[in-house]
Structure formats: C-alpha cells, structure tokens
Amino acid sequence: MPDISPILVWFRNDLRLHDHPALSAAIESGAPVIPVYLHTPEADAPWQPGGATRWWLHHALTDLQDQLAELGSKLVLRSGSHPGELLEVLMRETGAVHIFWNRRYEPQQVQIDSRLKKKLPVKSFRGSMLWEPGTVTTGSGDPYKVFTPFYKSLQKEGDPPEPLATPKGLLSPDSFPASEALEEWDLLPRIDWDKELYEQWTPTEAGAHEQMETFLDEAAAQYKSERDFPALKGTSRLSPYLHFGQISPRTIWHEAKAHAATEGGGTGIEAYTRQLVWRDFAMQMLFHFPHTDLHPLQEKYADFPWLSDDAALKKWQLGQTGFPIVDAGMRELWSTGWMHNRVRMIVASFLVKDLLLPWQEGAKWFWDTLIDADLANNSFGWQWAGGCGADAAPYFRIFNPMLQSKKFDPSGSYVRRWIPELRDLPDEYLHEPWTAPSPPKNYPAPMVDHHSARDRALEALNNLKGEN
Ligand SMILES: Cc1cc2nc3c(=O)[nH]c(=O)nc-3n(C[C@H](O)[C@H](O)[C@H](O)COP(=O)(O)OP(=O)(O)OC[C@H]3O[C@@H](n4cnc5c(N)ncnc54)[C@H](O)[C@@H]3O)c2cc1C
User: Fold this and answer.
1) Nearest alpha carbon, ligand 1 atom 4
2) How far is the CA of 157 from the centre of ligand 1 (A)?
3) Within this chain, do residues 234 and 103 fall inside the same structural domain, yes or no?
4) DSSP-assigned letter for residue 143
C-alpha cells in the first residue's frame, strides 16, 4: 500500500490525457491518482447539456474510461446534486487529501469552483484556454469589448505555453472507490435520431488529433480564402473537441504554427490561430459579463420589441422557411449537430432580423442541437447576430439570404446537399426558387418578403438607436 495519500483529479471540460496540467501534476507528485468525473445536472442548471452534447459526452467519457484503463487506471463516475458533497464523500472513502483540477471560466462554474476552493484542498491549473480571462485589459483596466485590440494586446504576451506530453503511466491506489455505470446516466437518446452523428464524428481524443492533422495537411493553408464556403471542408471542425476539452487549444496553436513553419501556408495558419483567439474573446466576455448568456450586453436591447410567434420559430427550426441557404443550414444542424460558421451567421440574422424573434430563442435551439454547444461561444455568436453584444454586427447589417447564398454557395452544392427538393432546380433559380417558372411544389414559399422584413427590422432598430 503506497504511504502517500491519493490525489483526486476531477475531469470536467478537459476529457483528455494529452496536455492535461492537473493530471500531469498529480502524476509528477508521485502520489496515487484517482481520476473522477461528476455528473451534477442540478448544479449545471439552467444550462444542462442539450440532446446533442449529451450524446457527445457519453462517447467522450467512454473514450476517457478506455484510455485510463489502458494505463491501468480507472475513471470513477459519481452523480448527485452538489459536486462538493460528492468530492467530500470521495475524500473520505479514499483518504485523498488533495483535489487537482483545470480551471473553468463560465460564471456558474466559477461560482461553484470558488466555493469549493474555500472548503476543500484544491490545486487548480490553467489548461482550457490559450490565455485566461483577465490576462489582458484595456489601458483603464477594463475588459476589452472589441476583438482587434484584444488580439493585438495578447500578441504581446507571446505564444501560450507548449502542451504537456500524454502520460505513459500513472500510479493507482490499491483499490478504486466504487463507480457508477455510465449507461445509468442515460445520456444517449432514447429514440434513434443519432445515426448521422455516428457517421459524421469520431468523438474521441484520437479523433480530435486525427481531425486536426487532416485539417492542417489538407485545408489550413487555404483557410483564409475557403473558410466562408460551406460546401468546402475549409474549416477545422474541431469545435466539439474543443468544447469537451478532448484537445487543448494550445496543442492546436503549436501544431498549427509548427505546420506553417515546415509546410508553408503562413497566412492561412495565422487566420486560423486568430480564430482560436475568438474563442478566448468569447469566454472573457462571458467571464466579465456573466449575465450575457440570456441578457443583452447593450442594455438598450433589453426593451427591444421582439415578436412572439411559435409557428414561425418552428419553421426556422425545421428548415422550412423557404429560403434555401437558411433551410440548408438548419437541416445540416439537425442531421449532423454542426453548422458552418458562415451559415450560423446567416440563419441567426434571419431569425433575429427577418423574423424579429428573440436571439435567446435561437441560442436555446442551438444549445439543444449543436454538438459543440458552448455557453461562451453560443451566447457571443447570438449577441453578435442580434447586434446587442460586444464587437457586434451593426444594427443596420442585415444579411440578405439570397445574396449570401449566391456569394458563398455559388454552385449551390451546399443547398442541394441539404435540400433534396431543390436538387433538380437550375442554378439560376436555386437561391430564389420562387422565381422559377414552376417552383418545386414540395418546397415552401418564402415565409416573409425579405425586403419588407428588412425595412421592418430597420425601423424597430432605428427607434432604439438613439437610446442610452
Ligand atoms: C449564432 C452563432 C452561434 C455559435 N455557437 C457556437 C457554439 O455553441 N459553440 C462553438 O464552439 N462555436 C459557436 N459559434 C462560433 C463558430 O460558428 C464555431 O466555433 C465554428 O463554426 C466551429 O467550426 P470549426 O471548428 O470548423 O471552426 P474553425 O473555423 O476551424 O475555428 C477553429 C476554432 O476557433 C473557435 N472559433 C471559430 N470561430 C469562432 C467564433 N466566431 N467565436 C468563438 N470561437 C470561434 C472555435 O473553437 C473553433 O472550433 C457560433 C457562431 C454563431 C454566429
């Protein structure tokens, strides 16, 4: 029996072995290590994982269990209402006197972790962001609300630290405490809607690294010019892996830079690493402005006269608006749990400005259906689209779904892939099927006239312009 007390390593949004500072530090201490994951739906309310992220979580945990088993270790699963109580029970059962974790930054998680730090022997580490919120501030000490100066300021910090190696082994206690069975948590859907998810994704740590390597080899050099075209595989699709921490952002950062140095493609890579910093920016916004998950950052938008129209919301959710690029995006989301960034911006603008429905409704739908649903990125993206967030789209910027479709899906292959009803329509009508001599009968007519909807939105937004 080792005479040193074991360390509990609490895995949270860092479901990986590579570049896991808390795990590496626990191993280096020479103490036996007990990896733990806690399922605490009540503590996570109101932002409990949606249907799609529950699917991913199940597989990410299975993968972590398997990887730890290969090292002769075990992931101990416990569920309950309060993480603190669960940790205290585990400390009593195992004799552990230390808990190690990597820091989290969502407001509710910060509150939980700060409370726990006051009563439990916790050591925390930096591992989930390139730079932690608060690393840089404006000259007056305030958080940045505009991306470019935030980015420039971070560039002066130099590169984030190099990632840590995957551990080759770890010391285990003589016996592990009892674990619940993952299946008992019922994370997988009861009805069979997840077939396409299995076809599209490999939700494991190895899957994350493969995805990164494929992207760096095949697409990163062209990222700057191709990232806006949803029919191309022009972006990394690493967002769900980043959300669950199956790959660390600094691993991607350093791999991308090393790739640029050896293989060329510098401007593409720089555009890409810059995008990773948007993730830090979104998190620092939520960290400093904790109410912005559901409340507009710009206060004047709190009184915006949003409409309430369940039937219209449903049409948007189901991809039945009659605007091909909007419907293609919403159907891609439903089938694959993911949507291309350009299309996220288009469908969000459509909901908020063409339909005048609240951005919070869009955020909630995305939360339930995206496999990368992430509180910081999702709130930030929706506030951006609604014009009420940081560095947001100006209120008069209203995406024209027909022009966006022509510009970013010129051959129509994205629209045709997701809307079979339009597959045989000639290119010239594809982006505005209602202009065809005989529009397809099985595809809806546009639910609004974009030009009058635009005028209506501008009028409502103009009324707000002068306030504050
Ligand atoms: C309305 C709306 C909602 C969104 N909701 C989410 C969400 O819930 N989860 C999520 O991860 N992203 C969200 N985004 C941001 C962005 O669309 C996705 O991160 C991106 O499409 C993921 O694809 P990718 O990994 O191929 O991105 P890449 O282009 O390959 O970028 C690499 C990584 O950088 C980060 N990133 C890229 N763009 C952004 C951005 N605009 N804001 C913050 N981080 C970014 C992501 O972590 C992404 O994985 C949202 C955007 C909008 C407009």
Assistant:
1) 378
2) 23
3) no
4) P
Residue 468 has pLDDT above 50, yes or no: no
The percent of residues above 70 in pLDDT, for the chain, comes to: 98
* Ligand 1 atom closest to 241 (CA): 49
Residues 6+ apart with CB under 8 A from 251: 18, 19, 163, 212
Asked whether residue 306 is domain-assigned, the answer is yes
Nearest residue by C-alpha to atom 16 in ligand 1: 341
Domain boundaries, position 49: 7-128
Q: What is the CATH classification number for the domain harbouring 28?
A: 3.40.50.620
Do 106 and 215 belong together in one domain?
no
Q: Do both 424 and 321 map to the same domain?
A: yes
CATH code, 268: 1.25.40.80
Average pLDDT, the chain: 94
**Measured from the CA of 240, which atom of ligand 1 is nearest?**
11
Q: What is the DSSP letter of 411?
A: T
pTM (predicted TM-score): 0.97
pLDDT at 174 over 60: yes
Mutate to test the pocket of ligand 1, among 214, 341, 404 (most ligand atoms within 8 A of CB): 341
Q: Are residues 56 and 122 in the same domain?
A: yes
Is the C-beta atom of 385 inside 6 A of ligand 1? yes
CB atoms within 10 A of CB 411: 11
Q: Is the shortest distance between the CB of 338 and ligand 1 below 6 Å? A: no
277-305 pLDDT, tens digit per residue, is 999 999 999 999 999 999 999 988 998 99
Query: What is d(CA 104, CA 86) in angstroms, rounded to the nearest whole number?
Result: 18
Give residue 219's pLDDT band: very low, low, confident or very high (50, 70, 90). Answer: very high
Cβ–ligand 1 distance for 369 under 6 Å, the answer no
Whichever domain contains 417, its CATH number is 1.10.579.10
Residue 441 belongs to some domain of the structure: yes
CA dihedral sign, ordered 286, 228, 341, 308: positive
Q: Do 332 and 440 lie in a common domain?
A: yes
In this structure, are 19 and 89 located in the same domain? yes
Which residues are CB-neighbours of 127 under 8 A, at least 6 positions away? 14, 19, 20, 21, 22, 102, 103, 245, 248
Ligand 1 pocket: which of 236, 286, 377 to mutate (most atoms within 8 A of CB): 377
* Ligand 1 close to Cβ of residue 182 (< 6 A): no
> Largest alpha-carbon pair distance within the chain?
82
252 alpha carbon – ligand 1 mean position (Å): 15
Q: Please tell me the total count of domains within the chain.
A: 3
Q: Is the dihedral of CA 266, 267, 270, 272 positive or negative?
A: negative
Determine whether the shortest distance from the Cβ of 238 to ligand 1 is under 6 A.
yes
Q: pLDDT tens digits, residue range 400-433?
A: 999 999 999 999 999 999 999 999 999 999 999 9
